[in-house]
Amino acid sequence: MRTKSQMAPRRAGASTLAIVTIALLPVASFGAAAAGSRPNFSGVWFSVQNTHHENISAETMFKKATGIKAPPGGWPHVKPHYAESFKAAIRRAEEADARGVVLADTETQCRPDGMPKMMRAILPIEVVQSAKQVMVVTEEMSQVRRIYLDEKMPPAEEISPSYNGYSVGHWDGDTLIIDTIGIRGDVSFMFLPNSGKMKLTERMRLQNPNLLELTINLEDPEVLEKPYRLTWTYTRDDSHKILEYVCDNNRYAPGKDDAATLNIDIPQ
Amino acid sequence: MKSFAAKGYVRLPGYSPLRRAMGLLVMSLAASTVCSASEPPDFSGVWGDPSTGEEAPTAHLDASELAKLFQPIVLPAGEPVLKEPYATEYRAHLAEKKKASAGEQAPADSHTQCVPEGMPHMMIMPMLTEIVQTRKTIFLMFEYLGQIRRIYLNEKMPPVDEINPTLTGYSVGHWEGDTLIVETRGIRKDAMFFHIPHSEDMRIVERLRRNGSQLEDHIVVEDPKALAQPYVITFRYKLAPARYKLSEYLCENNRYKDDAGTDFLDLRVEPSD
Does the distance separating the beta carbons of B44 and A130 come in below 8 Å? Predict the structure, then answer.
């Protein structure tokens, strides 16, 4: 995704740089950020955590994908009031996994992951950056996340809660700082309860042109003893075209003679 | 451009052959960028208000008035002229729909099943659609059903048998002056425009043009196996005010109900009115 316009200023002398920059101004809003000093995150990214899966069993891959294991950075410190339900949720998932039962969670119900789960990118993500916003589009569930640049965060009570929450971003040098609030109370990350007052602060930057780093700081004063922090990295593969993803409610199961049958057994 | 480059160049202090080569490289890059990128218009923005650019005529109707409006459904470009066996299949689809409507049942179509509409139905755009235009790709992000369509610019259409069929199909586009010509192939046979069946050979050619705050999509659907003549539709969209932001859209399968905290499946289908 590195375009000629990005390459040109770095190779040019000061006066030529000015000419080139002026010449590029009317190109497109997409080019505006690229022509400046800001890094360009646009491209298709694969999670490093999820792609190093050679020669491992399907079971291990499932565990990695479902998150039934300590999340990166270890388990968060949950306040006593929420600790029991947190442990119970993990135990329930582990037991279901041992029995080979798929729980009716967001994924089996075709609901979006929401934030910050969607950023773990079990399937590739595409970043589309313009001067006004950074969009993150996931292949899994076709989720779209919009990060509005240089806008003020609206008051919390004016935000309609959503899976991805409301995100505003600003640049701190080569790092994009993203604040997110307004995440629906039923969005859970790694079995973690969510009081509805969850606040995320992310730092997104390029370690190098082909390695994107995202550090997430998760705060929820009602649920967590202290903020929970994790880092995910992604490698670039712009040759990949994000595929269409249709999550057809899979309560339809093959029945007699392989005919699609409505399966009304919901594992509790 | 050439003389301008030369003039800019001689002003540079510390002349060296290397710098000269670098300068020419930079200027030629800038020149090619300007020539190729300054011509096509920018479709980026949030678009809505389909067809007329006026307020949706259904906005102030109650449920029963709405139901009347949608029965029978009026095709945007009239009835298609279909060949057999597609004509028979189409009549069967319409009969099914009529029967379901008579029994006050919503027919199980893509809308009631939360499945994306696909092409060309999605271009009706009942809700806002954000277009993000880059040099390589034009993204159409639909609020309705959260559908996403990508148009790859200046790429060759792959052979049809190499395209994995999708609801949205595979789209490539190129600019002809101020018009974006988009070809779409590889549309799943179950992605139907108002129940009209089509073959795997269906090909859609669109001509998109922006006129100020209006975007026009002239759509020609070709399908020599199914259509006796191409089906032609034109949609127009109005640019929404800059403050408009797309909302998250969640189509939850509506057989799932929450009753006093207990999830259960509701197998009844709500009456359509």
Answer: yes
